[in-house]
From TrEMBL:
It comes from Brassica campestris. InterPro entries: ARM-like, ARM-type_fold, SSU_processome_comp_20. This is Ribosomal RNA-processing protein 12-like conserved domain-containing protein.
C-alpha cells in the first residue's frame, strides 16, 4: 500500500487500483466512492512517522466532501487517535490535523450548509458528553474543533436561524464547565447574540439569565482565573446582550450586582461600564440609578485623560439628551455644566465646546421629535451667545480664521430658525460695546456661513441704527482696538449686503468718520477704511447722481487722504485695495468735474459753501499744498483748468511719493497710471503722469530702482504712448528737460571744481 504523501494510485480493499487526482483526492470519476480506501491510506500513516510531509491532503479532502457521512469518516481518521493516551508531540500533531480539516470545511462549497451545521452540532455534543470514549481530556480537542468550525461557518453567513439556535445551549455548557475552550466559546457567542435567537427571547427556557450569570462570573473571575482578554470579551458580550435581550427586571439585578463597575468610569481604560451605559441608553431603559450614571459620564467627558474615553462619553451623553424625554430644567443643567468648563484650560474648554457643538447639531436635525428639540435650541440660543461672546480673545484678528468660540457661535446661528436669528443679532450688536473683538470675529465666522442675509430680512431699519451706533464708537474710542473692530463690523455688514443703500443720507455721518479715519496713525485702521471705501465707490458707480460742488469737494478730500495712506504704507499686503481706491477716486473726480456746467466752473471757488471750502483746505494741507492763495487761484480757472489743476496736483503728489518713498509706493502709482491709461481725456495730465515714469525709465531716479520696477515703468509708459500721442510728446519733452538739467548741473560742478584744481 502506498503512503499518503506519494500516492497517486490507491489500492482499494478489493485489491483494485484506483487512480486518484492528487490535487483533490477525488477518484477520476469525480466522486468519493473510494473515500474509505483513500482515508485508509492516510490512517495507516496518520502520524507520518519519519516522513517530512504537510497536512494539505486533509485540507483538500475537507474542501470536497459533500455529505455528513463523508465528513465523519474524515474526522474519525484523526479522532480515533484521541481514544488512547498521546504524548505531547502526537497531541500537537492531532491539533494541527484538526486545524487543517477546519480550514478545508471553512471554504467547502459542496456540503449542504444545513447538513454541515448538523454535523458540527453532533461533534460538539460528542466532545462535551464524550460519547466516543476519548481518553482523558482528549474530548476537549473535539469540542474545540467543533467550536472553531462553528465560528468559521457563521462568519460566512450561510445558515438558517433555526439551525443555529440549538448551539446556544451547547456554547453555554462550554462556558460553565471550566474547560479550556472558554475563549473559543466566547468568540462564538458574539455572532450568536447578534441574531434574534428564540432561546433568548423565550423566558421559559431561562437561557438568558443563565448566560448573563455565566458572563458575569467569568468577567469577575469568580469561577476560575480569567485572562484579561476573556474578561473584556465578556463585558463586550454583556453590552451586546443588554442592547438585544435584557429585560427591565434583569437590568435592575444587573445594576445592583455591578455597582462597583459603574463607579470606576473615570479609571476604566477599557470602557467596560461605558459600553454598558451606552447599551442601556440605546434601549431607553428608565431606572433609579440612571441620572447618577449620566452625571458620571458628563464628568468623565471633561476630566478623563484618555481622549478615546472622552469621545465615548460625549456620544453617550448626547444620545441621552436627545433620545430621552427630559424637562428643560434637566437639559439646562447639563448644558450649564458644559458652559462652565468653557472658562477652563485648553483641554477642558475644547472638550466642552465640542460637546456644545454636537448638542447644537443633534438638536437641529430633522426627524421624530425635532420640533420640540428645535424649540428648546431656539430658547437656549440667547444664553449660549451671551455666555460665549466674552470668551473670544479681546485681541482677536477678525481677518484671520475665527477662534473655536467664534466659529461655534456662527455654527449656532446657522442652525437656528430664521425667526430666531432676527431676535439674536441685536443682542450681539448690543454686546459690541463690551466685547468689540468678539462681535467682529462673529461677523467673520458668519461670513463663512452666509447667514447675514437672514438679519437683513429680520431687522430692516433697526440694523441701520446699530451700524451708526457702532461707527460713532470710532470717534470716541479709547483704544485703536475698539475703532478697528467697529470699522470691521461695518465692512462685514456692507460686504454681506450687496444691495444695501450705503449712500443714503443717514449714512453721511458714517462716511465722514471713515474718510477721517484714513488719516489714522495705525496702519490696520487705514487698511480697513480702504476696504470700506471700495464699497463706497462700488455704490457710487452704480448710482446715477448729478455732479455737485459738494461731491467734488468730498472726492478731492478722499483722494488727498488716500495720498496720505500711500505715503505711510510700507506693506504690500493691502496694496491692491489702495490701488483700486486711487483709480476709483481719480476716475470719479475726472468724470464729475467734467460734468459741471461752465458757469459753475468759472466761479467754482466762490460757488463753494464754507463746508466745501474747509474740505479743500484740509485736503491741500494733507498733500502739502496748504496756501489758501494757491487753492483760490487754482479753483478760479475755467472747466478744464479746474479739472487739470485739481487732479494734476494729486497726480503730482503721487509722483513725488513714488520717487521719494519705497518700492511699494512706486508700484502702486505705476499700477494706477496703467489702469487709468484708457480713461477718456486722460491726456490732460500727460506731463504729471509721464514725469516719474521718465525719471525711472531713463535712469534719472537713482541707482536703487529694482529691475522689476523699471520693467513695470517701461510697460506703463509704452501703454500710455500707444493710447494717445500726447503722452509720447510729453515724455520726449520731459526727457529733454531732464537731460538738459543733468548737463547743466554737470557743467556747474565742473566749473566749481576748476578753480580749486588751479589753487592746488
Amino acid at each position: 500500500m502506498a503512503t499518503s504523501h506519494e500516492s497517486v494510485k490507491c489500492i482499494c480493499s478489493d485489491k483494485k487500483v484506483v487512480e486518484v487526482d492528487p490535487k483533490t483526492w477525488k477518484s477520476k470519476c469525480g466522486t468519493f466512492h473510494c473515500l474509505r480506501d483513500v482515508l485508509d491510506v492516510l490512517k495507516s500513516d496518520v502520524f507520518f512517522e519519519g516522513v517530512d510531509v504537510s497536512f494539505r491532503e486533509l485540507k483538500m479532502i475537507a474542501e470536497n466532501v459533500s455529505t455528513k457521512s463523508q465528513a465523519l469518516q474524515l474526522v474519525c481518521v484523526v479522532a480515533d487517535r484521541l481514544k488512547s493516551l498521546l504524548d505531547p508531540k502526537r497531541r500537537s500533531l492531532v491539533e494541527k490535523m484538526l486545524e487543517e480539516i477546519a480550514d478545508g470545511f471553512e471554504v467547502n462549497k459542496c456540503f449542504d450548509p444545513e447538513e454541515l451545521f448538523e454535523f458540527i452540532y453532533e461533534l460538539m455534543y460528542d466532545g462535551l458528553k464524550n460519547k466516543s470514549g476519548f481518553h482523558g481530556h482528549n474530548a476537549t480537542l473535539i469540542s474545540a474543533f467543533a467550536l472553531d468550525l462553528l465560528y468559521r461557518r457563521m462568519k460566512e453567513g450561510e445558515f438558517i436561524q433555526e439551525v443555529i439556535d440549538p448551539f446556544l445551549s451547547m456554547v453555554l455548557v462550554c462556558l460553565t464547565d471550566q474547560t479550556p475552550n472558554q475563549s473559543l466559546a466566547l468568540r462564538c457567542l458574539k455572532p450568536l447574540l447578534q441574531l434574534p435567537l428564540p432561546s433568548l427571547s423565550d423566558e421559559g427556557k431561562a437561557l438568558g439569565p443563565r448566560l448573563l450569570r455565566a458572563l458575569l462570573q467569568i468577567a469577575a473571575g469568580v469561577v476560575m482565573k480569567t485572562s484579561l482578554d476573556c474578561s473584556l470579551s465578556c463585558y463586550d458580550l454583556l453590552a451586546l446582550y443588554i442592547s438585544k435581550y435584557m429585560t427591565v427586571n434583569q437590568l435592575t439585578e444587573f445594576v445592583k450586582r455591578n455597582d462597583r463597575l459603574f463607579e470606576d468610569i473615570e479609571t476604566d481604560v477599557h470602557c467596560r461600564a461605558l459600553s454598558h451605559i451606552e447599551a442601556i441608553i440605546e434601549r431607553r431603559f428608565e431606572f433609579e440609578e440612571l441620572p447618577h450614571f449620566v452625571s458620571e459620564v458628563s464628568f468623565s467627558l471633561i476630566h478623563n485623560v484618555v481622549e478615546k474615553i472622552s469621545l465615548k462619553c460625549q456620544q453617550i451623553l448626547l444620545e441621552y439628551l436627545a433620545n430621552y424625554t427630559l424637562s428643560d430644567k434637566i437639559l439646562d443643567g447639563h448644558i450649564d455644566i458644559m458652559l462652565q468648563y468653557t472658562r477652563c484650560n485648553d483641554q477642558k474648554k475644547a472638550r466642552a465646546l465640542t460637546m456644545v457643538r454636537a448638542f447644537i447639531s443633534k438638536f437641529s436635525e430633522p426627524g421624530l421629535g425635532s420640533k420640540s428639540k428645535r424649540k428648546y435650541l431656539n430658547k437656549l440660543s440667547s444664553r449660549l451667545v451671551t455666555t460665549l461672546l466674552p470668551l473670544i480673545p479681546r485681541d482677536a484678528d477678525p481677518f484671520k480664521a475665527p477662534s473655536p468660540v467664534g466659529e461655534l457661535i456662527g455654527f449656532l446661528i446657522e442652525k437656528l430658525s430664521k425667526g430666531m436669528v432676527g431676535n439674536l443679532i441685536p443682542e450681539c450688536l448690543s454686546a459690541f460695546k463690551e466685547y468689540p473683538a468678539a462681535v467682529a470675529e462673529l461677523a467673520q465666522s458668519l461670513d463663512a456661513m452666509q447667514v447675514l442675509f437672514f438679519f437683513m430680512k429680520a431687522l430692516e431699519k433697526r440694523f441701520r441704527k446699530h451700524i451708526i451706533t457702532i461707527l460713532k464708537k470710532v470717534e470716541v474710542a479709547h483704544t485703536s482696538d475698539e475703532s478697528h473692530y467697529s470699522l470691521f463690523m461695518v465692512f462685514s455688514t456692507f460686504r454681506h449686503f450687496p444691495g444695501y443703500q450705503v449712500l443714503d443720507p443717514e449714512f453721511e455721518e458714517m462716511w465722514r468718520i471713515v474718510f477721517k479715519s484714513l488719516l489714522h496713525t495705525e496702519s490696520r485702521l487705514r487698511n480697513i477704511c480702504c476696504k470700506l471705501l471700495k464699497e463706497y465707490f462700488n455704490a457710487l458707480g452704480k448710482k446715477n447722481m448729478a455732479s455737485s460742488q459738494s461731491l467734488v469737494a468730498t472726492l478731492f478730500m478722499v483722494a488727498a487722504h488716500l495720498c496720505f495712506v500711500l505715503k505711510e504704507n510700507t506693506s504690500s499686503d493691502h496694496k491692491r485695495d489702495l490701488t483700486e481706491n486711487l483709480v476709483h477716486v481719480l476716475s470719479a473726480l475726472h468724470s464729475w468735474i467734467g460734468q459741471l456746467d461752465q458757469a459753475t466752473c468759472n466761479e467754482f471757488w466762490f460757488s463753494l459753501g464754507e463746508n466745501e471750502k474747509e474740505m479743500f483746505r484740509e485736503a491741500f494741507k494733507v498733500i502739502d499744498r496748504e496756501e489758501e492763495g494757491v487753492s483760490r487761484d487754482l479753483l478760479s480757472e475755467n472747466g478744464n483748468g479746474i479739472r487739470k489743476g485739481l487732479i494734476g496736483i494729486l497726480l503730482k503728489r503721487m509722483g513725488e511719493l513714488a520717487l521719494e518713498k519705497e518700492s511699494v509706493q512706486m508700484s502702486v502709482v505705476f499700477s494706477v497710471y496703467e489702469e487709468l491709461s484708457q480713461e477718456k481725456e486722460w491726456h490732460l495730465y500727460a506731463s504729471e503722469v509721464m514725469y516719474p515714469l521718465c525719471k525711472v525709465c531713463e535712469g534719472f531716479a537713482g541707482e536703487n530702482i529694482s529691475v522689476e520696477l523699471k520693467k513695470q515703468g517701461e510697460n506703463v509708459r509704452d501703454s500710455l504712448r500707444s493710447a494717445n500721442n500726447i503722452f509720447g510728446e510729453a515724455y520726449v519733452g520731459i526727457r529733454q528737460g531732464l537731460q538738459a538739467n543733468r548737463k547743466k548741473r554737470a557743467g556747474e560742478e565742473l566749473a566749481k571744481a576748476g578753480p580749486r584744481k588751479k589753487i592746488e
